[in-house]
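User: Is it possible to get a 3D structure for a protein together with its bound compound? The compound here is nicotinamide-adenine-dinucleotide. I've pasted both below.
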Amino acid sequence: MEKADVIVIGSGQGGVPLAVDQARCGRKVVLFERAALGGSCINYGCTPSKALLAAAHAAGRARLAAPLGIHAEVKVDFERVMERVRSIRASFSQGIERRLTEAGVRIVRAEASFLDPQTVTGGGLQVQSPLVVINTGTGPAIPELPDLKGLPLLTNLNIFDLEKLPRCTLILGGGYIGLELGQGLARLGSEVHIVHNHDRLLNHEEPEVGEVLAEALSRDGVHLHLDCEVNEAIYQNGICALTLADGQTLRGDAALLAAAGRIPNTAALGASAAGIDLDKQGYVVIDEHFRTTAPGVYAIGDVARQPAFTHVSWEDYRRLQAILNGEQRTRSDRVLGYAVYTEPQVGRVGLTLDQALAQGHRARAVTLPMAHIARAIEWGHDLGFYRLVVDEDTDKILGATLVGYEAAEIVHVLLAHMQAGSTWKILEQSVHIHPTYGEALPSLARLLTQ
Ligand SMILES: Cc1cc2nc3c(=O)[nH]c(=O)nc-3n(C[C@H](O)[C@H](O)[C@H](O)COP(=O)(O)OP(=O)(O)OC[C@H]3O[C@@H](n4cnc5c(N)ncnc54)[C@H](O)[C@@H]3O)c2cc1C
Ligand SMILES: NC(=O)c1ccc[n+]([C@@H]2O[C@H](COP(=O)([O-])OP(=O)(O)OC[C@H]3O[C@@H](n4cnc5c(N)ncnc54)[C@H](O)[C@@H]3O)[C@@H](O)[C@H]2O)c1
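Assistant: Yes, that's possible. Here is the predicted structure of the complex:
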């Protein structure tokens, strides 16, 4: 039995910096990782998907430039696109290994499970520690479909290993992954069908978000099957056929992508041996201070049902580190921002109007269409809108939804206002630069004076 000061299970976005910091403080740290170092974000998530989208959006922009008087002939070298994706992913993962090693973290390349709250085993090793941090993330949820067994399913785990672009790709799910990869594959030349079991894409967002994205995806030739389920999936001779509830049959050359949500990576953990409670879906139950129900065991990131974003897992690490140092921090008092990297992008922060009303705020929303923004007209971006949600009692900004060009960047202006506790009146008085997309934010706030 080995002894350590800290055990980290999973090299996700919070686990790696935590392990590095603890090791730099002179503690003996053992990190278990059963797959590639760097977790979902680097290997099967943000990094490869955004590298792929860089190529896809370059192709898409070129094709859609005709209204500007530019007529481009686009030729996609899919092999080269994917080589670039994989080389960026490999270099990021190697960087993680270097960081951990240089800090003196002992890396055990094996699946870990608990023997008791202080003892973890994996790769033939048993390690005992007073502090264990679980950062094991999530994996793709596979929809329960009759006859799905035997079908070579694509998920976020293997799609970035593709060598050949599928002629036709059938995607289950019109959420983040389905939309980003659906538009990406379409722009690279695949015939894409998205089957979504809700009548709106990205159905947790302001209703108009789904409408704008549906229009944008249609312009890219994506076929949308909304409010629709798959009844049957058959795989024969390399061809997969999906029969939809509306009677249509979609056929693809073996490319069916499951993008229908996530399941937590807890099955292998042996949580019950350590007295770690899981919720009904298998997520680790934590309190406001990331404590699980087992003494000395904490959980951060996606596996603890925190909002499933890289920056949240990273911020969890900062908060847990502060808590371990005796500071008064909690897990949920953050201004949450996130984005969807379709074109147009969706930049989000804080509450939607419905969420604000449901939380008891006397909330009001104002909306500015893209077509009223000078920069958007000049650049030929006609799709999208900016929406601001404010509290009528305090004038505080409660949230925003920006749908438009580089909205993921522009939404940070509002995130900074919210973090600083400022009001829409301060935003309205700010003189932003002309002609920019940012200039539209004070104009948006000005609508509240009417
Ligand atoms: C396609 C896709 C695109 C995404 N794009 C974005 C984006 O643009 N922006 C964004 O903010 N977020 C994005 N996300 C979400 C983001 O990837 C996750 O929220 C982020 O990785 C945080 O994960 P984590 O730190 O909780 O753990 P993860 O990064 O999931 O890491 C968990 C690690 O634990 C390991 N592990 C699991 N069980 C065990 C075990 N028993 N023993 C040892 N090791 C184990 C796993 O192998 C994995 O390496 C995307 C996700 C996907 C799937
Ligand atoms: N840009 C980003 O930050 C980014 C990108 C990708 C993923 N992510 C993270 O990863 C998480 C998972 O993404 P996701 O897209 O898998 O999940 P999701 O929950 O965002 O979307 C899945 C959608 O699929 C639908 N669905 C479920 N089962 C279905 C079925 N059988 N047939 C048709 N539709 C079905 C659901 O209604 C749901 O809206 C996200 O919640 C997000 O936190 C973030």
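The mean pLDDT is 95. The CA atoms of residues 187 and 220 lie 7 Å apart.
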